[in-house]
Amino acid sequence: ESTIVRLSTGVKKSLVPGGLFVGAMIAPSQMDFVVRWLVNWPLLIRRSPDEYESILGRSEWLPDEIEVIPEPHKIHSLSLCRKRAC
């Protein structure tokens, strides 16, 4: 199981019902070299909005608890995951 799946699962378990987890992901793009070179973040793993949503789904979030919002160029995505109230 990947680190991000374990982390996201742990966040969900720690939230109270109705709690909100806000996350973000960067998709592959032609500007990847900028992040690697300028920001010195060579190990950043980039994923598409669909891949990101799939990861959240494997993290015990239910489909109706997940909202992934990509910006128009689909390079940056924001996720809003609200734990269902029991």
The span between the termini is 27 Å
Structural class: alpha+beta
**Largest sheet: spatial strand order:** 1-3-2
* Strand and helix order: HEHHEE
Measured on Cα atoms, how large is the radius of gyration? 14 Å
Q: Bin the helical content.
A: 25-40%
Low-pLDDT ranges: none
Quick tags:
86 residues; 3-stranded antiparallel β-sheet; single chain; alpha+beta; 3 helices
Give the secondary structure arrangement, pairings included.
Layout (H helix, E strand, L loop, with lengths): L2 H12 L5 E7 L5 H6 L11 H10 L7 E5 L5 E7 L4
Antiparallel strand pairs: 1-3, 2-3
Q: Could you walk me through the main structural features you see in this protein, from its secondary elements to its overall organization?
A:
Helices cover 33% and strands 22% of the residues. The protein contains three helices and three strands; from the N terminus they run αβααββ. It has helices at residues 3-14, 32-37, 49-58, and strands spanning 20-26, 66-70, 76-82. The protein has a three-stranded antiparallel β-sheet, covered by helices on one side. It is elongated. The chain starts with a helix and ends with a strand. The model has no long low-confidence stretch (mean pLDDT 88).
Short description:
This protein has 86 residues and is an alpha+beta fold.
